[in-house]
Amino acid sequence: MKATLLRSEDYTRSPWKNGGGIFTDIADAHRADAPQKSWDSLLWRFASTPIVAPGPFSHMPGIDRLQMVVSGRGLVLRAPGQDFDEREPFTTVRFTGELEIVTELEAGPVEVVNLMARRGAAEIDLLALRAPADRQLAAGTHLVYAAGGGCRIRLDGEEFSVSHEDTLKVELTAAAQLALMSGLAVLGSIRLIG
């Protein structure tokens, strides 16, 4: 097990793919053979972003996406023939980057977290944990994001404190037991394929 605390002051900020806003890049991975990091070399990304006005989502062919509101409420994603309801915070929605999505804000701006992965390169999961909570983690990369204030976790007997908006990145070669002892956390899980 390798555990690394990612501090919010060290996160990078970049424009959305469509230029419509700015996202905070919390953690990501790119193809090892890529000459530079780009959307084309992306394997997975865990990020947060404010959505302050209705508008279109970036077109991301070949990318699977999970999203959750962590601050505010009333977000609906409108796509041809279907809607994705995120009105209540900490509800996960799954969609593909090919969908033409426009946001609708029913109660003002929101902050969301996104976990995205190149289709066929990784399997991803995103869920909210409220203390007390126990969860078995499979081998892979797991991100414990303190979205609602600080939180404390125990991972196979070792305790960690994670301050508000910081993230504990855990890389596992075998299964481990996670216990959320206090607070609320968003857990992003990534398992590379192949």
TrEMBL record:
It comes from the Bacteria. Coiled coil: none annotated. This is HutD-family protein.
